[in-house]
Amino acid sequence: DPLPYIPLLNPVDLSALLALAALALWRKLLQEARPPVETAQLVTGRAGLAAMALLAFVLANTIWLRSAHHLLGVDWEADALAGSQIVQSGYSILWTLMAMGLMFLARSRSDRLPWLAGAVLLAIVVAKLAFVDMSQVEGLARIVAFIAVGVLMLLIGYFVPIPPRAEETKEATA
User: If phi over 0 gives left and psi between -120 and 50 gives alpha, with beta otherwise, what is residue 8?
Assistant: First the structure.
């Protein structure tokens, strides 16, 4: 209050996105620094990239939770959010969309690591569907989640095969 809630265009989401963008810019500047900063290896290496990816994942999930609260009327309490059928179905769809994005990124870069990260996220979604959604989510929310995740996984399987290993690519070009 007094501002209406608009996902991504509210002060909380904008400040979190700005902080994430600032961290990404800082990481890029450290990677391009000449001479290289030896003490920045933790930030510029894979650990820094993994930390940024984890922060982006948490941010996307919190944006979904705030959207479910403001737009769909779910109470802003941990038990209400965790027990909401809409929130649980939304998590399944959101995580599948994130996995799909990672896999498309991997295809465009010919890099296996993002593809494998997306595959792990898909495995988590399938486990969540089997163990959480089958026991807690009922009715239309479960049907929508299963159909949406199934269609997205079908699209992933068709459009985004696993990129070849680096050695296979080198041998094919030779």
Answer: left
Residue 11: is the preceding peptide bond cis (ω within 30°)?
no
For the stretch 44-98, pLDDT in tens is: 988 999 999 999 999 999 999 999 999 999 999 999 999 999 999 999 999 999 9
Q: Tell how far CA 56 is from the center of its chain.
A: 7
Q: CA 40, CA 31: separation in Å to the nearest integer?
A: 8
Residue with tokens 């495995």: 123
Helix (H, G, I), strand (E, B) or coil at 138: coil
pLDDT given at position 172:
60
End-to-end CA distance of the chain: 63
Radius of gyration (C-alpha) of the chain in whole angstroms: 19
